[in-house]
Structure formats: structure tokens, C-alpha cells
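Onboarding guide, step 5: your first structure request.
Type a short instruction followed by the sequence, for example:

Predict the 3D structure of this protein.
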Amino acid sequence: MTRRVQILVALVLTALWGAGIYAAHANGHLRFLDRLEATLTDLRTQVRGVQTPPDLVTIVAIDDTVVKRGGSYPLPRADLARVVDTIVQFKPKVVAIDLLLVDRSAAIGDATLANTLATGPMVLAAAAIFPTASETVAPGSEGPLAVLPQAERFLLPLPAFADHAEVGVVNVATGQSGSPLSVPMLFRTHDKVELSFPLRVAIRALDKPLTIAPDHLMLGDRAVPTDTDFALPITYYGPRRTIRTVSAQSIFDGTLSRAAIENRIVVIGASVAGGGDFYPTPFDSLMPGVEVISTAITHLVAGDGIVRDRKVHIADALAAILLPMLLVGLLAWRRSAIGVVAAAAVMLAWAGLNLFAFTHGIWLNAATTLAAAVPPVAVFAGVQLWAGGRRTQYFVAKSRSLALFQAPAVQDWLARDPNFLSKPVRQDAAVVFIDLSGFTALSERTDPDALRDLLKAFHALIDQAAVDCGGMVTGFLGDGAMILFGLPHAMPDDAARALKCSIDLHRGVERWIASLPPAIGGQLGFKIGAHFGPIVASRLGESHQHITATGDTVNVASRLMEVAAQNDARLALTDTLLDAADFHGAPDGVLTGPLLTQVRGRSGVVTVWFWRNRNGPSQAATKAEMID
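The system replies with C-alpha cells like these:
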């Protein structure tokens, strides 16, 4: 499978994963994502910070101060009637009582409250009772209202109170973290639909008709974007009492300010410890339920709520599919730090965009997108690392194999410059040839395995001598080898290193032959030729290339082995090499010559010198003595 096909398969699988995650969560599965989303929503709300709410609502709180004065909770109906009566006298737009008036109390108190409710625009709280802990949608339901949570029944105020007020359901929807993230706007039982408490209050305050569209609500000519189940997403302005709050005790004390009530929406609710509902929010561990309800009322009236409607869900679906595909594509595009940095930059950009949208009133889902993006990216990155490790092992093995055929210096040079010697290069270089004598005759009567071991040891000796002197074995020629000094580039001491390598080979091979069994060592000899001069270095071959050198210098070095054998010597050196090496003899060797001779395949005379160990026979004076 080609790399392009692999990447295409990875992108398709990533897209399917993202679509599956989004669909599963949208259909009510993967509930753990709701908890993650609630946590991320709290973080985004805190980053956004405290905001000043539109000054439309006043909360009249039945708090600990009121309870201490009256000595009991719930507040007696006669006291509640006094609170409502005082508020009505200050001309509010609407009075919303966030208290469940479902039980009878003292007859006088109930009658007094009923009469008071008839004096002003009132909205009372009701509660939806569900058969289970979760609000479910009945199967088989049809139409836009089919998505509404279906209650078993509604817990309504006493008829004596309800006859003088409008009624709305006060339930809120809490997320997995317990923090209310939305307030349902509509509820239903098997035979009726009820409006929520905040929606009833908003309709009365705005004096606008309500229209229920398939995927949103209309208050007059203004659209109210809701979630898919007609729930109003809410975002908190700040900690408790951010919305204007006064204690009901100010009514009993006669200190209530008219400005806090007049022409405003007034919500009466409980904030007493141990009574009423309290919820955790991003700013508070405990916020009174009346302030949650007041937040929803403010959103409805002011139109400043956060949007999480059908269009936002479409954007969430696209993000769950496209973001992980983009991240995987970037990792595939550059299997290096560049790809990782690019993917990280895209993730940061997405996080920034998500936060920017949230702070500007659009609630994009973060948890679903993360669940869609993180696993495929992690898996793909893991596969990339595994494949990278395999590729590294492959290239290490390949490099080791290459090391068997190319000198380390040439390997390094090819790694830096893959086009090295793509065109022939003319330069000066030193060339050394070595060859075993008697090997062909020995091979006719020696076991092939033993012969192979013999050649292996001989080649290893040559390779070590070449490496030690900085030369390159351009090729093993059966029972011989060619060593080149001058690549990857010419050096001033090429001739000197070639001379040292030749002498080291002379001594090393001599010792090696002496260490062989007499039956083998007695039949072997060797000869070495070394020369210095111009060569043409190039690559030979098409699909399988090797580096070599050609020219007269190579031919002379090769023919010098014959000259050495003809003159009962093992190492023949040209005058040109000795001059380039600035060699004047050595105390542990004897240099004899010169011999003016011709070599096969070349016109002209070559000046040749022969090097022997000092304990070998000497036939002539050293070059240094002749110079002297």
C-alpha cells in the first residue's frame, strides 16, 4: 500500500470516527462528554469573567434575615401577602413568585394572599413531576413538540392563587456537574403543554405574543434561539447577587426603595440556608435557584442569551469531522517537528476560536470535538512513531550494509551531498593495489569453505589498514583490492597516507601469511603497487552504482605489482609517490632502487623503488643514501 493510499485511509477513518462520536452524543449516548462539556463551560465562563447584567430584574430574597425575624420557613402566607402588596404599590412590570404555593395553610393567610395576587400582574411557579430522574421524550411522538421533556404531571398552585395569576413551570436542567446549563422553555404531559416560568414572565413583561416555530421561539417579532429541545442555554453574569437583589426584610422594615421596584421585573424567591434550591455555578459553589431563574428571565427579555441552536450544532458536527481530519493531514504532511508544530497551532487556533465564540454569545461544543479529535490524532501519531522507528531501524541496517561497501568518509559525504561525483571529477590521488600470489593454484585443492574464510580474513586485514590510514577500498578484486586516497576530496597528505598504508599492508599480510598453516602459508605470497598522480573519480553503473577511479595513475599502480614480482620484491613504489610523500627512508625498512622500467600498456619509463623490511635482503642503497 502506497503512502498516499495509507493517508487517504487514515483520513476516511478519522472522518468516520468524528461523525460517529457526534452522532452518538447527539442521540443521548456518551454522557460522560456532558460532564466534560460542563467543566469546559465553567472554565470558559470564568475566562470571560464577570459581566454587568442588563438592569431589568430585581430579586426580592426571602433570606436568613427574614427567617430570623419571622422564626419560620416557609414564610407565612400573610407575611408573603404583605411583601407582594408592598411591591405592587411600587408599580412593577410584573411580579414573579418563585415559590410553590401548592399546600394549604391558615385560611386567613391564604385568603389574604389570594386577594393580594389579584391586585397586580402576577406569575406563579409550578413544578413538573417526572416519573424518573431523567426527563425523557416519549417514543413515537411527532411534530416539533415531540422533543419536549414529558412530565408525569404538573404540580400547580392552589386554585385560589392560580385564578389570579399566570402559571409557569420552574424546573431547570442541570448538567452532569450539577450546574444548570439551560432552562427548558416548554413542558408537556400526555395531554397538555405548559410554558416555563421565565418564559411566562418574559411574555408578561414584554407584552408580546409567543409563537412556537419548529426550532426556535418568537416573542413578538424577535426570535429567541433555543437548543434542540426548546431549552434556553444560560450563561451566568457573575457570582450570587450580581443581579440586583434586595432582602424582603427591607419591606418589613419599611426601607424598600421604590427605584428598585418601579417598572421592573420583580422575582420573589428563597435564598435562605437550608431552604429553597441552590446550585453550583462557575462563580459560586451555591447560587440560589431564584437567581438562576432570574438569569433566564434577563436573557429572554434583553435578548443577550448565549446561542446554541441548530446552526451551532451543524458547526459542531463539521468541527467534529473536519478538525481531526486536518490534524491527521498535517501530521501526515510533515512527519517531523514541523507537522507536530502545525497540528499544535491548529489546535490552539481552534481553542481560541471556541473561546472567542463563547465570550461573544455562541456556545460551540468543546467536549465532543475533543473526543472526535484526540483519539485519532493520538493513534495516528503513535503509528507514525512506530513506523518511524521501523524506518530508523531500516536505515540503520542499510547504513551498516553500506559501510561494508563504502568508506565511512564517503558515507558521510554522500549523506551531506547525495549528488557527490554525479559528474566525473579530475584530481590528484594516490592509488594502492594489493594481490595474493599463488591463490589460484591453492584454490584448486582447498575446501571452498576454508577458502572463503581465508579470503574473508585477507579482506578484513586490507579494510582495517585502509581505514586506519584514511583510504577508501573501491573494490575487492577476488584475491586483491584497490585502495584510493583522495576522496571525498584531495588532501595534502594523500601520498604520505598511501605510503604508510602500503608499508602497513606489507607487514600485516606478511605476519598473517606466517601465521597460516605451512601447507597454506607456504604457497601464498603477495605483491603491492602504489602510485600517485591524476585520476578521474566517478560513479559507475545505473541502478547499482559504485565509486571508482580511472586513468594512467590507476593503470601504473596496478602494473607495479608485476614489477615487484619480477624483481623479487613485494612492494613497488613510484618515484612520484615518494616525492609527493616527502619520504626519505625509515629506520625499520629498506628502500632500494631506483629502477627505470616500462610497464605493460604504457609508453615511457617509470622510476620504481622497492621497499623491504630491514631484516630482508638489500640489493641497493636507499634513496636517501643516493641523494646524499
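Each response can be followed by summary notes, for example: The longest strand covers residues 525-540.
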